[in-house]
Amino acid sequence: IKMRWETLVEKVILKSSNLLWAVSSLVKRSLIEDYRIPEEKIFVLHNGVDVEKYNMVDDEERRKLRKMLGIDEDTIVFTFVGADPYRKGFDKLLKALKNIKIRNYIVLAVGFIPDTSILNISKGLNVRFLGKIEEDYLVKIYNITDFMVLLSRYDPFSLVTLEAMASGAIPIVSPMVGASEIIEHGENGFVIVNEDELVELLETISRASLEDLRRKARETALKYSWTNIASNLIREISIRLKYLSDLRSGVG
To answer: Do residues 194 and 11 touch, judged by C-beta distance below 8 A?
Structure first.
């Protein structure tokens, strides 16, 4: 009953709003298709990131951080960050890792305590469950990460993807992650549909190309600093409100 009431209130708020900010085109489609919100009332503006807090470190600092965490320099580090490992597709990553030939890897799982099912799937894999951690520690995790993997079944726009990219981690996400809209496959990250594509990607990626991918991931994140997002938000609201005002008055 509580959920139905909350859903009803949500629909009333959305329907009665003059303007809606969608953090991705994925969310915009949902508002149009599921809530029947007129398209002209919605604008898309992606989330932002603190590009000073989440920053790349040089190779020497990266080695030091890895040593501090007991991870070899040549180990491929996959990181997952999320409270819900099923909705966020952590199980897909584990299933893919069971089918790859790579052995010098570690998975750092952040944000949840694994249940029996996740523990069973992860048997035989090199997974370190970190649970909920402090933000300063998370920054360090991002700094030593090679691939930030988020194969969500639905994710409006994950802040962790931008945080990782700003820190020089290479994102691997599903098309159902709103942040996939800022990723150019093979340029600053990867957008993959299923575990088979992930297996193929991981077995063909060259270590020599990782540095360029890290740099481009960071460059992309810089475009989404909170300063830039705030400026774009003010501009979008001004444009949209003028458009709605003109529409009501019959101008144009």
So the answer is: no
Percent of the chain with pLDDT over 90: 79
What does the DSSP assignment read for 195-237?
A: HHHHHHHHHH--GGGHHHHHHHHHHHHHTTBHHHHHHHHHHHH
Enter the tokens of residue 67: 């040593």
Give the closest residue to 18 by CA, choosing from 251, 247, 252, 244: 244
Tell me the C-alpha distance between 178 and 30, whole Å.
12
Q: Which string of DSSP letters, residue by residue, matches 12-64?
A: HHHHH-S-EEESSHHHHHHHHHHH---GGGEEE----B-TTTS----HHHHHH
Task: Look at residue 1 and tell me whether its pLDDT is greater than 90.
Answer: no
- What is the C-alpha separation between 86 and 39, in angstroms, rounded? 31
Give per-residue pLDDT as tens, 151-192. 999 999 999 999 999 999 999 999 999 999 999 999 999 999
CA–CA gap between residue 221 and residue 162 (Å, rounded): 6
Determine the Cα–Cα distance for residues 24 and 182; give it in Å rounded to an integer.
Answer: 10
Question: Residue 213 corresponds to which amino acid?
Answer: L
Q: Please give the sequence-ordered ranges of beta strands (E in DSSP) within 143-210, or none if there are none.
A: 147-150, 170-173, 190-191
pLDDT at 158: 94
What are the pLDDT digits (tens) for 214-252? 999 999 999 999 999 999 999 988 887 787 777 777 765
* Neighbouring residues of 106: CB distance < 8 A, sequence distance ≥ 6: 71, 75, 76, 77, 78, 126, 127, 128
